[in-house]
Fold this sequence. Notes:
The chain is an alpha/beta fold.
Amino acid sequence: MPKDFCDKPSFLVIVCISSPSGFEARRVIRKTWGRDRSVMGHNISLYFLLGQTTDIDIQKNITEEYLLNNDIVQESFYDTYNNLTLKSAMMLKLFTLKCQSKAKYLLKIDDDIYLNLPKLIDDLMTRNQTDNLLMGSAICGSRPIRSSGDKWYAGPSYLFPYDIYPSYISGTSYCMSGDVAEKILNTALNTPIFHLEDVYLTGICAKKIGLNITHNGRFTFHYLKQNFCLYKQLITVHYQEPELIQQVFDSIRDADVEEKCRKEDQIFLVHRWLIENVFMANKTRKIRCS
């Protein structure tokens, strides 16, 4: 763990969920959206959360990466898909113990996400909601998948015996006020674990404490055709290769792109309407909340 982990006050602590082998993704994030420690006058902290690996060479490289960048947190569980719930719960524990007294917000984000940090900061400042906030791309009416070959297999019915998941937020990225991290963590400690991290923490546990999740259409969890003007209006975009994240970061700051995008604001509104009312309405697993 970084020696100065959450030592200083921060407006926002970002915890990026990364795999041990995700060296290139982390490198690009440090060069692009994760490079600034102050945005719009607010202090930002960024850390990468990893589990354990059995590969000796990868572990050696992680150690070198940690010594160079001082932003790696590696916990004592194997880094597997089925351990994502443990990984995110560990994030909540670290934030609650080390950061909550010094930070207003926590952002959980995957390392294949492009983050428009100024847009997020602007959104949080506008809302000015420093408690009971759990925000992202909300999913409603989603049904458990009972086919064992599916990536989102819910497991045997005794793990989740109901026909519909509670409304939850896509685990690709979500933001919460500091108090929510502690509330969800404490609830999780007394709630049978479920391997689908987003369903468990932002759905089952959030519902158990009576927390209303906040849908924000500027968080996206699916791939969008490359459109820099659209990206400028969004907070997150999913399924981006590291090199494309670099390209997006450079392009949306280009003066020519800025001028072009001023003329395309209405296009963004049309895109968002289509995404929320047509495209996502046809998805059987994930239906966006209105």
